[in-house]
Each structure stands twice: as C-alpha cells, then as structure tokens.
Write a structure and sequence with these properties.
With 701 residues, the protein is an alpha/beta fold. It is built from 24 helices and 26 strands. Helix content is 30%, strand content 18%. Helix 3 crosses helix 19, helix 5 packs parallel to helix 13 and helix 8 crosses helix 12.
Length: 701
C-alpha cells in the first residue's frame, strides 16, 4: 500500500458481475474509503470506471449494512428478528440441515449462490461444501447460457480478439449491450478508435439508450429479432460480393450452403421481423462489408431471449462471412472466459463431487420451491437452503412462485448478506457479510484479459464475516471439515491457485496487482483454425452435441425446444410473441446506476434512477389514454405490477421497457418487475428470458 500525506492508496478489483472487472485504486483515510478510481496503468481499465463504483464509499459505509447475525422471531417476511451470536446462529443452521437430511436425504439441501461477488474464493467455496455433503447441485442459468452457447457453437471456444484492439478498429459494432451503463470500458476503446482512426461506431439494441446516443449508426430492433437482422446483413454481403470467399473456403464449414440458405433472407424480409428499415440494413451491411477492420463487440443482451443462442450465433457469423478475423482490430468478441486457466478444483471440491447427485436449475427456483415435479428432476423436495451472493426473491423470474416457495413453513433458509434484501426478509437466519475491500480474493476479467488481485484493505464493520468463514464453520458442524480443501484461509487458497498458474504467491502477486494473459494474435483470432474438430467455423452448429462451458449436467439434459433449432443462422420464433390479449412485449433492461439488485440501496444511485418506470412509445400511450407520469399497470398470466409511465420514442411501437431491478418494496404493491418474467428453459443450454415477455398495459385503477 502506498502512502501520500494522510491518504493511503490501496489497489483492488471491482467484484461485481460486470465484464469490465475494473482495476481500482482506493483512497483510504483512517480505515474508511473516501474515493474510488480506475487504475490508469491498467491497459483495459485505463483510468475509467462507472459512477456507481466511483461512489463505493456510499455502499461500504452504508448505515443499513447488516452487522450481527439475526434469527427470525415472527412469521416469515414479517420482519421480526432477534440478534444472536455467530456460534448460536451457525449451530441453528447446521441443526436444521442435519434434520432435513435425516428426513429426506442430503439432496433436500440446496446451497444457492451466484455472482454478488465474482471473487473465486468467496463466490465458489460454497460448492466445496455442496460436494462434500452431496447436497443438490446447482445449474447456473440466470446470466450467460444462451450467449455463451451461441458463441461456442460457431467458434468452439469462449475467447476472441484482444478487447483493446477495439481502439485499432475502423468500425466497432456494439451489439446487444448498453455498454455506457453496463461495461463502460468498451466505450473507452471504441471512442479512442473514433478519435485516432475516424472509426465508425454502430450500436444495435432494442431501444435508443445511452450507448446508442454515442453511435454514428444506431439500429433499433424488436426484442428477439437479432438473428433476422444478421441474416439480412449476410444476404447483402453475398449478393454484393462483399463476402471474403477465400476466407470462407479455408475457415468455414459450409459457405455455399449458407449462401443458398440466405438467398431469401433479404433486407425487406428482415424489416418485417425486426422493424429496422431495409435501407438501414443495407447501409449497415455495406459498412461492415467494406470495412475490413470491423470489431463486433457482442453483449449479454443476446442471453435474455428464448432464441438468444440462435441470435448470438447468427450475429457472430457475420464476422466469418467478411473475414474480418484476419485483421488486428477485427473479429468478434463476447467473453474471454476460457483463457484464464485458474484451477478452481480445490476451492470447489471437484474431487468430492458425485455426478449422480441431481442438479437444480437456478432460474427455475420458483418451480423448485413450489414442488413442481419436472423442476425437481426426480429428487426430494428442497427443505433447506444456504444462500450467498444473490437475491432470488427479487432477481429470479416468476417472482410470485419464488415468494410462495420461500414462505413455506417446512423450508429453512439461511441468507448470508450485506443488506436486508428481499430474500433476506424471507429467511429464518440472516448472517452479516463482508464487502470486497474487507476480505482477500482474486478476479478474472471476462470482458478483457487480466487476472486481478483484491486483497483485504479495510476491516469489516460490526460482526460481518466473509463467505469462506461461513463455509468453514458449517463444514465443522456438518462433519466434513477433514475433506480436501477445507481448513485453508483465503490466502492459502490463493497461493495454491496462483502457484498452479505460474503466477507466484499472494504476496508476490500483490506487488504485480494483475497479470495480462491475453493469448497471442493467431490464437485469439483463430488464425490456425477454429476450436472445433477440423478447425472450421461452424455455420451449421451441432446444437445438441457441442460441448461448452454452460452445457447442462446429465441429470438435466439438453434444454428447451432444441430439436427446432435451425440448421443455419436464421430467425426462429421461440420468442414470447405479442397476441391480442398481450399486445406489448416487455424488456427489463439494466439501469445505469444499479447492477442487478446491487446499488439499489445507495443514495447516489437511488437519486439518479428516481422511481420504477415503464417506457412507453408516445403513440402507444396516446392510444391507451396514458400521459407522462401516470400510474400504469402492466401484466400477463403471471401477475401484474404498477409503475409510472415515461413516454419515450426511442423504440419500436409495441415495445415497453422497464429499466433496472428495483427492490420489490420500491413498487406500489410490494411486487417487482420479475412477477412478469418467465422461467422457460432456453434451447439448448438453458437460461432465463428476461427481455422476452408479452404483456398488456393499461392505466392503473
């Protein structure tokens, strides 16, 4: 730690579920955080971070942080608690878990976690306890699956051109991500390309958001229709001889078959599906066809639709048709998640895993907790849970089912949290959790190429304890503390993992701060061939047979209507289409100063976001007799929610947008937007379609 006057500068990494994983410089005075800055000497962060993390002092020193273990004394959800010691609280948790096991077997316990921290030790140690005890496995589906599956179907691996190469592009296509709100560093490198090279920036999204306002060309598509747009672009590339036929013959599986397939996928055909005028599609196609150094930055918006894997694969295929992979500043990128090579086997307890144990789908927690037979995959009911790093009562789809499940009298729930979230309110025991500056961990930048250290910089408030502490203490009480991986501190885990990667020890890496593990140009651009057997980019994916980082376990199997997935890139009608009873389609897009359900408690973010609102096209609002600021009710067969109308003409008619995951209590009736979203599994690897919801809208009674 460096010292200047009375300010200490500590170095860390942003722990939140964001591809930017920014390198941070933290100003600390007398053990308190003052300001947070992006590290200027990190080549991807480049000194730029989002406003919500810059204000992190609001969060880490928030007066509403949980400080002591709490045990429920009243009815579930009533909010009546008594303080307890850590020993008493953990004894209670272990007792309830053992009691549940005795009645239904070990698989009745379901440890449930996700990405509230992306630190590998604090996030993933829960799996070691899971495997040691043979508790139900966890199939994580809520975030990445359709996008990752679609990308890997084409390339064979989850990697791509160095994201810093955006600054060397002549055209940057930002597709399916509101980067200004969700990964600001994409804009750092794209705007550098514009300033230094005169590069054009294209943004494709479902509404004219903050990123599109930075674009030279913005295309507003109907949700779930990106595949149709991509096919029309490729149609033009073949039609106008802008396809790189030599590249196609060398690097792709069936270019002639693709060209024939696309012969009817004209811009006019796509206009009827996407809402994008055919003339705009022609302009976009010619731009990417004539600009060899085009960098396609493909985002997580693809993962939010029932046809998301198909749409990602179709958009990705454009880069293969143009051959832009050959050039520095060219190619297509979604995530570098496969490049890091950090061995998590000890943290997660891989040697303890029993593949015969059933897995449960994270996104279908409502169906699991209400006892739906198909969701339980042949196993017992879930009667005990440990929840870390996530807030399913707020963020999971089919919220009414989720809440009904949590309110079961025969379900015991322990939540380890930083604030009294919607999920914590429904728990039996609530344990206070540390924040990232209060424990040791390590992070990977999926949106770039750095492994970054996050050492403990300040002491936690009250009795807050790290996730690892909870796992270790429960392991002792549950009789598995002698199993491999238990009994180690966070730093010992990090020493083991860093040593396996050839990156030294915690102490030496603390000096280095991060490691750049970007593969060389030829590897990143697949110059030696793509990662499928035979080395070809696949226009014709093996949807059911291709391995991938999100492939479902055998106990769940290939997901959704996979038999209907197309042979070539195409538009498929898996989306929840509007109908006479539900004439609108809803997307629940990210808010700029929230991150899922994090930051919804900080004053700066709450002031910036205002209140839960529904964006309506003015013409649609006029037809419904709704004015700006009016209370509106939006609903479907899953339920209904009240918000306030915000008139906005930056989207197609028939589309409505609700930004951000507000706490349920921020809504008039105490129910949040995920009352409306569904948990139908997305083909082929699962997922949750948060931007793919049919609804009706009316003036609220």
């Amino acid at each position: 730690m460096n010292t200047h006057a009375n300010i200490h500068i500590g170095h860390s990494a942003c722990p939140h579920d964001c591809p930017s994983t920014c390198a941070l410089d933290i100003e600390i005075v007398d053990g308190r955080v003052k300001r947070v800055h992006g590290a200027k000497d990190n080549s991807y962060t480049a000194g730029v971070i989002c406003a919500k993390v810059a204000r992190y002092a609001e969060r880490v020193h928030h007066p509403d942080r949980l400080l002591k273990p709490l045990v429920r004394t009243g009815a579930k959800g009533e909010g009546a608690w008594r303080e307890a010691s850590w020993d008493a609280a953990l004894d209670r948790v272990a007792e309830e878990f053992l009691k549940a096991e005795e009645r239904f077997g070990s698989q009745t316990v379901w440890p449930y976690q996700y990405a509230g921290t992306m630190g590998l030790v604090q996030r993933d140690s829960i799996h070691r306890l899971r495997h040691a005890k043979r508790y139900s496995d966890f199939f994580g589906t809520i975030c990445t699956n359709p996008a990752w599956a679609g990308y890997v179907m084409g390339t064979g691996d989850l990697r791509g051109p160095d994201p810093r190469e955006m600054a060397k592009a002549d055209c940057v296509v930002i597709w399916g991500t509101n980067a200004v709100a969700t990964q600001v560093n994409v804009m750092t490198h794209a705007i550098r390309a514009r300033k230094e090279r005169g590069a054009k920036i294209v943004v494709i999204d479902v509404y004219d958001n903050a990123t599109m306002k930075q674009a030279d060309l913005g295309l507003v598509v109907n949700p779930g229709t990106d595949g149709a747009l991509a096919c029309a672009v490729m149609h033009v590339l073949f039609r106008d001889n802008l396809a790189d036929r030599a590249y196609l013959e060398r690097y792709t599986d069936d270019p002639k078959g693709l060209e024939a397939h696309l012969s009817t996928r004209t811009p006019e055909w796509a206009e009827a599906i996407t809402g994008v005028p055919a003339a705009e599609i022609e302009v976009f196609a010619r731009l990417v066809g004539e600009t060899r150094r085009t960098y396609f930055r493909l985002g997580y918006g693809f993962t939010r639709n029932r046809n998301g894997a198909v749409n990602m694969h179709a958009a990705l295929s454009i880069a293969a048709v143009t051959g832009c992979w050959k050039y520095e500043g060219g190619g297509a990128f979604h995530s570098n998640s496969s490049i890091f090579g950090l061995d998590k086997s000890l943290i997660e307890g891989h040697a303890l895993r029993d593949p015969s144990v059933r897995a449960l789908d994270q996104s279908q927690i409502g169906r699991v907790l209400t006892g739906e037979k198909a969701a339980l995959h042949g196993g017992p009911p879930v009667t005990a849970m440990l929840i870390q790093n996530t807030n399913p009562a707020n963020v999971a789809p089919e919220q009414r089912l989720v809440k009904r499940g949590f309110l079961r009298d025969d379900l015991f729930v322990c939540v380890h949290e930083q604030f009294m979230t919607d999920t914590a309110m429904l728990a039996d025991v609530v344990l206070p959790a540390t924040m990232f500056l209060e424990h040791d961990d390590i992070y990977r930048g999926g949106g770039h190429q750095h492994i970054l250290l996050g050492p403990k910089l300040i002491d936690p408030p009250g009795e807050a304890r790290p996730n690892l502490f909870v796992i270790e203490e429960l392991a002792k009480r549950l009789g598995v503390a002698d199993k491999p991986g238990f009994g180690l501190s966070a730093r010992e885990h990090l020493d083991w993992m860093l040593g396996r990667r050839g990156l030294g020890t915690f102490d030496s890496f603390r000096h280095d701060r991060w490691a750049d593990v970007q593969p060389d140009f030829d590897t990143a651009h697949f110059i030696g061939g793509f990662a499928h057997q035979g080395g070809k980019f696949r226009f014709r994916p093996d949807w059911a047979g291709t391995p991938g980082p999100t492939r479902p376990p055998a106990s769940i199997g290939i997901q959704g209507p996979y038999a209907r997935l197309p042979e070539f890139p195409d538009h498929v009608d898996f989306i929840e289409a509007a109908d006479a009873a539900h004439p609108f389609r809803l997307a629940t897009s990210p808010a700029r100063t929230f991150l899922n359900s994090s930051f919804t408690e900080t004053p700066g973010s709450k002031k910036r976001e205002g209140r839960p609102e529904l964006m309506l096209h003015p013409d649609d609002a006029a037809g419904l007799g709704i004015a700006a600021g009016d209370r509106v009710e939006v609903g479907n067969e899953r339920g209904e929610v009240v918000l306030h109308a915000k008139l906005f003409d930056g989207m197609r008619r028939g589309i409505v947008i609700a930004e951000g995951i507000w706490p349920n209590g921020a809504h008039e009736r105490g129910e949040g937007i995920n009352v409306l979203t569904g948990a139908d599994a997305i083909a082929p690897h699962g997922g949750a379609a948060f931007h793919d919801t049919k609804v009706w809208v009316r003036a609220a009674p």
